[in-house]
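Changelog-adjacent note: as of this version, every example in the card shows the full chain rather than a window. The one below runs 299 residues end to end.
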Amino acid sequence: MYDKADEPAPAWALPSRAPSQEALNDVFRRPGAGRLSSVPRVRHTTTLATLASLLVTLVACLAAPDGEVSKPAGTAPGSTLADLAEIAKERRLRAGFLIVDCVYNTELTAPYDVLEHTLYHAPDNLGIEVFTVSPDGAAVTTAEGLRIQADYSFANVPSIDVLIVPSTESSRDKDLENEDLIEWVAATGKSAGAIMSLCWGAFVLAQAGLLDENACTTFPRDYDTFSRRFPGLDLRINVSFVHSGKNITSQGGARSFDAAMYLVDKLYGEQVAAGIGGGLLIPWPPSAGSAPYLVSEPK
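Full-length structure tokens:
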């Protein structure tokens, strides 16, 4: 029987604590990533709110029918993807993809395809149910002309465990002035267990205040644009994606596959990710010479 514990740690793996720039370059053989900063760990303490939450859960369990445990809808927010990985062992997760007119095909379909394939590879018939959400539930037309009927609107969408924000033609301007959209992203992102942006989707997350305590990245040609609009954020450059806290921000384009595969690995393990990669012809785990990524602890 395959036992992952018998194998040495893969050469591509990075520690959860932010590595040094030298270590990053050694692993990926790709110099030029942004300077990393050492961030102290947050000490967790037991609070009255935590005790109250445990009491509510206990009461719910006692009130549930025999053989059944009552669980709240949605995902309890956590500081890392490890929290969501534990939930993924118990039930299917729900990934909601925000779509508006002129969303880009690749940044939408690449992670959609990868996450949907978890339904065929995750153990115990678990995995991720994927669906699209537009503000009013109406169909949208992508930047490349593909017509997509949204599954839900902001008003009737079920709880979301993984929020995906692909880039659109208006992610850097008009979308940022859309108060309803930004408020929905802010509220949904706070309650979700994981958040992913692709390309200019990082602009939307930043506008919603979801990147304030996290390192992030975006489309390489717009590093300067992003820095000017959000000068206080910790932008990292020359990396395929950045994982910080429960956020994964990607450069976008074909690199959107990297971020989605990484998320699957974190939630379901390397074997599941490798199985999906085999079907999609995406080598996993990635080789040492592939595009580098960054893992950074939130501030």
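Structural remarks: The longest strand covers residues 93-98.
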